[in-house]
Specification:
The protein starts with a helix and ends with a helix. It has 17 helices and no strands. The protein is an all-alpha fold. The protein has one domain.
């Protein structure tokens, strides 16, 4: 049986409701359409997606990873039409030192926690890179370079996506509790939340300025995928393979430039941002819908513990630094 058919069969077994395929597909498509309406927030979409995965099942699970990947990239580029180049450069400068410190610190801690929990080297490395740089995107880019197996990739992705889901809900609450400014919260999100989708989702709940700073710093952080991928070939002594470069970041920058310097673009920027935010909400629904029981069970306690330890240490350290020096 091929992988695609196996995924579909496994997904059917995991659903609590025994529904025919046409009914499941109809419910899924209706739910997906609901997530495009303004009444559903990104956080709510994630919850609906998680509920769908456990109760109804994802009838298009074999397409989910590619769909979320592309949809997130398009949404992020759309958000660029609401940002200003000068403010973005300022945010980038403010976040540079924090970014370098957090990435290097996370990778060092990841090495030692992996040894401590006796986790497979490649699984530990992927979790560390996902935590340090940009979640699933970093894992997807680095896994072929280190020749990671599908099982190892799934464990790392599952761990990162579970923690991303938690971050989307608790970060805004922590930010309000400590009375973080828009700038502080945007920086903290970009440094401490793994995936761009959850960074944007959490920051958008906090405010427009937080969203602008978080998105800019996070995308600048994502560029570290390139040197990390090259470094990985030496760490794991593998032959140099094709490295996935995040080209959509260039389109994001072009969108910012257009919004800053072309008056005609600014007249439609509000509509473009609305569409981009709807795309982000849909992305989070699909991420939740992809977290089936099989994915959750495959993670295992030790990799999840490593992910939690890394995340808590980096989050608290970054929060302390930002509150005192940002």
């Amino acid at each position: 049986m091929n992988t695609q058919a196996s995924q579909i069969k496994t997904n059917k077994k995991q659903t609590a409701l025994h529904l025919s395929d046409p009914v499941r597909k109809a419910i899924f498509i209706l739910t997906l359409a609901l997530c495009l309406t303004p009444v559903i927030s990104p956080a709510t979409a994630l919850i609906i997606g998680l509920f769908t995965a456990q109760v109804i099942g994802h009838p298009y699970l074999h397409l989910n990873q590619k769909a979320t990947h592309r949809l997130l990239q398009i949404s992020v580029v759309g958000l660029g039409f609401g940002m200003n180049v000068h403010q973005a450069l300022q945010a980038g400068r403010e976040g540079l030192i924090f970014t370098i410190a957090s990435i290097s610190g996370t990778l060092i801690l990841g090495y030692f926690t992996g040894k401590w929990f006796k986790i497979e080297g490649k699984v530990s490395y992927l979790i560390s890179c996902g935590t340090a740089i940009c979640g699933g995107s970093a894992i997807a880019a680095i896994s072929p370079v280190i020749k990671a197996e599908e099982r190892q990739i799934s464990v790392a992705l599952g761990c990162i996506f579970i923690l991303n889901s938690v971050a989307l809900f608790i970060f805004p609450k922590i930010g309000h509790y400590y009375h973080l400014s828009q700038t502080q919260f945007g920086l903290w999100c970009a440094l401490a939340i793994h995936d761009t989708s959850s960074v944007v989702g959490a920051a958008s709940k906090y405010g427009a300025q937080a969203l602008e700073i978080a998105t800019t710093v996070k995308l600048a952080r994502a560029l570290w995928i390139i040197p990390m991928a090259f470094l990985s070939t030496f760490i794991f002594k593998t032959e140099t393979r094709k490295i996935s470069i995040p080209y959509f970041i260039g389109l994001f920058i072009l969108a910012m430039v257009a919004n800053t310097y072309i008056p005609a673009v600014r007249t439609v920027s509000t509509s473009l941002i609305t569409v981009a935010k709807a795309g982000l909400t849909l992305t989070l629904f699909l991420i939740g819908a992809g977290l089936s029981r099989n994915v959750l069970a495959s993670v295992g306690i030790k990799p999840l513990l490593q992910g939690v330890v890394l995340w808590v240490l980096i989050s608290t350290t970054a929060l302390y630094a930002i509150m005192h020096w940002a």
